[in-house]
Amino acid sequence: MTALRDALRLYLVTDPALCATYGVVNTVRAAVAGGVTMVQLRDKTATTAERIAVARALKQALTGTGVPLVVNDDLEAALAAGADGVHIGQGDISPSEARARLGSDRILGLSCETAEAVLAADPGVVDYLGLGPVFGTATKTDHKQPIGFDGLARLVALSPRPTVAIGGLKQTHVAEVLASGADGLAVVSAICGKPDPRANARAFDFSEGRTAR
User: Fold this and answer.
1) Average pLDDT taken over every residue of the chain
2) Which of 1, 107, 139, 208 lies at a CB distance of 3.0 to 4.6 Å from 188, suitable for a disulfide?
3) What domains can you pick out in the chain, each with its CATH number?
């Protein structure tokens, strides 16, 4: 579990529109060189075949880095591409069904926006929880009401599994995210779409402390 907590420290969620300048694969390659520790392929408009192609290219780009790749929502694409796991939301495939198909050796993440959702997440099935949104964000327009750092801390305290905060987070939020007890933060626009994704990833400063969990 320690390895997963470490992987959640700086979690990049891709956005094909924001990554258009360099492409998703080159953006991820640069971001990982700058310190990104986990990658989620998210593309809501792509077909499963298109996600498989990108996921395979990402797996190749990540070879030797130790950085896990998960696919958002699309279990078929994750399995076909040999990704390290899948991340699902509350309205997607059930965690138990996803786990049954993934097997025990791949990562299963689950988005939780409320205390009820956190408490309902089976720690024997789900590996980590994505908690938020901390702030509103233009990269996910259908999100629930932002919970802020106080709300984040309340959800973290309820979770027996590793947690990653998400929702409008930037380089200036590292200390507050870690103070909440979360293991790391997931970002999109703080890295994707920037002129230098490597430099923007490197700008996340974790030297002030890590979580005690």
Assistant:
1) 94
2) 139
3) 2-202 (3.20.20.70)
Q: Which of 5, 106, 111, 159 is catalytic?
A: 111
Alpha carbon distance 115, 133 (integer Å):
13
Which parts are annotated binding residues for Mg(2+)?
Answer: 73, 92
Whose CA is closest to 84, among 111, 125, 56? Answer: 56
Query: Which of 5, 9, 29, 42 is the catalytic position?
Result: 42
* Residue 142, pLDDT score: 60
Give catalytic status of residue 42 as yes or no.
Answer: yes
Binding residues: 40-44, 72-73, 92, 111, 137-140, 168, 188-189
Distance CA(70)–CA(74), nearest Å, equals 10
Does the annotation mark 140 as catalytic? yes
Look at residue 141 in the predicted model and tell me its pLDDT.
57
Q: 167 and 146 in contact (C-beta within 8 Å)? A: yes
pTM of the model: 0.94
